[in-house]
Predict the 3D structure of the following.
Amino acid sequence: MSVAVERPAVTTAPAIALSGVSKVHPGGVRALDDVSLTVDAGAFLAVMGPSGSGKSTLMHCAAGLDSPSTGSIRIDGQEIAGLDETRRTELRRRRIGFVFQAYNLVPSLSVADNITLPLRLAGQAPDQTWLAELVERVGLAGRLAHRPAELSGGQQQRAAVARALVARPAVVFADEPTGALDLRSAREVLALLRESVDELGQTVVLVTHYPAAAAHADRAVVMADGRVVDTLGSPTAADLAVRLVALGEG
Amino acid sequence: MLRLAWTMARSRFVALLAVACAVLGGAALVTGTGVLAESGLRSHVPPGRLAGADVVVAADQAHRVAEDLDEPLPERARIPADLGAELADLPGVTAAVGDVSFPAALVDADGRVVPTADPQGAGHGWSSTGLSSGGITGTAPTGDDEVAVGSAPAGTAPGDTVTVVAAGRSATYRVSAVVDAPGLFFADPTAAELAGRAGAAGAGTVDLIGLRTEPGAAGAVAAAARALLPADVTVATGDDRGDVAEPGAGAARPLLVALSGSLSGIVLLVVGFAVAGALGVSIAGQRQELALLRAVGATPRQIRRLAAGQALAVAAVAVPPGVALGFLLAGQLRRLLVEGGMLPAALPLTVSPLPGVAAVLLLGAVVWISARCAAWRTSRLPATEAVTESRTEPRAPSRLRTAIGGLLVVAATVLGGTPLVMRDDVGAGLVPLAGLTAATGFALAAPALLRWSGNAVARRLPTGISATSWLAVANLRGATLRMAGVVASLALVVVFALTYVLSTTTLLAAGSRDVQAGTLAQYRVTADALGGVPGDLRTDVQGLPGVQAAVPTAGTTVLWEYSELGDPAVEPSPALVLDPDAAGVLDLGVRSGDLADLTGDTVAVSADLVRSRHAGLGERVDLVLGDGTAVHPRVAAVYDRALGFGPVVLSGDLAAGHTSTGLADQLLVRTDGGTAAHDALAAVVADRPGLALADATPPGTTLADAPAQVWLNLVAITVLLGYLLLSTVNELVAVTAQRRGEIAVLRLTGTTPAQVRSMMRREAGVVTVAALVGGLLLSAVPLLSLGIGFLDRPWPAGPVWLAPAAAFVVAAIAFGTTELPTRRALRVEPASALS
């Protein structure tokens, strides 16, 4: 049973606005080459591309995990490109959620503590009602006192999704969230992300190279060599697979 | 394989640095002690004044003990002079000379004593000049008023008149000759009388007999002499002659070998453990790479060889400077031993490349074995399991482990109470053992303790606590095994330092307290330059106004023979020699009997020995005096203050004739305290040459005045503590480095770098407090009983700065080993740290 939750107010600013973002690694490798991208609030975007296309780098820059060499990145209207790590981290706590391929839960904390960790670090007490609903949604109601090591891969990833959602961030980034999961757990996690967009008004950016996973999104961009080369609306898995194969041959 | 080993090793720099330090220190110590051992085997004291005698015969200055090292006898034992006549008849002998030694010193024109190397044995008979090869200017002394001078101020010529204090008696003599050998040579009958050989007790004895032989016949003569002489007389030729010149020299060389052997053994063991620990840390850090190698096709044996290769590469770099340092160290060690009286100053060091080679081989073997042991477990894991090995800890620590730990702590507490029962150096020596046992028990029980206290703290945490403190507590609770290891290591450092140092210093303080309380005399007169206090000084001092008592005392060594667990045992102990009226100047805390009964064949013993050695009042005990004579004296008194005055006191009658000099070491004087008495005493002392006046007890025995054996102990403690600190630091650095992934996860979840540092600092703070509290609690009972048992107060004696210094070191290690690796971990971008 889900409780009706207020959608976050629809703002005029897009959830994410990248403009002319480039990232050059020491040694001259161009990971990102003048990328511009806009994601509206409440959208579900998939970013795809072969390895080396820069999709993970794009996500890290957009999420404030890495700083770009040039360009502007705005999350919910706030510029993050020039901030130092402490400011970026503080922003990340409240405004950005992240789901990793390797779950990255803190092994010495319980599931409940893991989920509420971003809020605790920001000095905020979690809203117990919201927390209860979130736990219910991800299906971990009976496992709150356990440690991550005692959960299966799928359960750990669901806990990570809950952690990403707990602060009701402007954007949730998911970097290959299903890479280490079996088919059933993968479907559950992707369904959760879809649900968060549909029912909670969340904005989600999914980076993946599985066409089947990207098909859950409303819109997909395809990257190659550090640039966005294609955009598909309401993609199907077949379309995406064809596009990716074409990229490989081209 | 070696190149691969080197490449992989470069990334584990800190751990291998620890290995390098351990190996360097080990190489230095093994080389240094190796030089000492080689000297013990191959060095010889130069023959000195015996250079002219081809064969030297003397009494055996070692008391044979079954199944154990021989005990050295420090007082010169005498041999019958008739042996000289028998030996002179042997084929190849051209001359046989009997030699006696007695204290003698030359007084120059200003009334000052001319310093000599050995005032206690400077006087000899004229025939002893036959033992040296030096030149003689003049004629032999005749009568009891002539002397031939050996070590004289420049310008002394035959015909001069000199003052000589011989055997405590001062007289003027005419110089009949100047001899190119050390010593003062009197006419033979005069020398015999001065050396106490004229009376019934010493008649017809000499200290040693020197034989001159035909060229090349020395060996044959020595063999013939050995066949002729009884077993308790030694025959020495060639390089061995120097060992016979001094009673203590012969014992020094086996002592060097034994000491070096045991020290090297301990060092190798400690280095082995330190290296194995450091390599274990290094290999654990390379676990993924090693597992990948296994997955790619390396056999377990190749993995172990890789690990051994890394270790040997590091050792190869660290051993040469260590060996160089060791040769320098040998000189320092020798100096320490000479100052402690355990080594004659004349014994030179033999320096050869052999100890260096031995150090290289031994340390190489130790490092190789440690490396294989450290790599054993990782190499045995199946390839896939090695990669996916779980990083989480079991929920609850093993109950058996906790139970054993608790038992050890209880046992250590009981052991720590020994000083209450055994007020001697054995009791004090058990205290560090109790401390170490307690620390081991704590290490076993620590996970359970930490878990219990962590839960207790977590329940009481205020809800408004900051995120970093909360994280610190959560981390500690979530990783109790790892944290327990860290806390236990640091607690061990505290316990080790406190118990080892304070047991030594408390024993010293208790001894000096006994001496202070038991010395009623205010002054003491010594005559080291003369070889002993002159016999007539006592009557002179007693006649001074204000002097209440003047008693001479001497020190010697006796050997107790007793039965320990059915086996015969021999234990040397220092012994005072006192007169019956010693009670006037010394208060030994006599419990039963009376010091006035110390006449004839009697001794006084410490109250601690009454039961263990069956030495109650009136009973007879078996002792061996310093020159090897077995005696069975009766116990005339039992006293308390053994810590300050030694466990046994001999009566003057018993020791007479059985010491090298026959003179007292000091004269203790008790006055009424007035300045008149002091001035009169000072006047008498100034009047006679070679005397010195001092306070009977120095103000207080600080560590700086401690005997050299205590310093040797402290050196050993410092070395062990150094290795302990090295291992602990290395372990802690590795623990923090292993948490890189954890730190990266926290940063990805939203922890700022400042918060990460703050969290690590709080963890370090908790670890410091836990280690200090644990260490202090564990050492509390042993230290308390040290204080109560030895000093009748609830705290021991020792440097005040010890506990704060230990606390500072623990805090510095805990904070330093988290701060620096944390900063290094924070420099890497979190996302790449995890990929």
In short: Chain B touches chain A at residues 390-392, 466-467, 470, 474-475, 477-479, 742, 744-755, 829-831, 834 (CB under 8 Å). The mean pLDDT of chain B is 83. Chain B is about 55% helix and 15% strand.
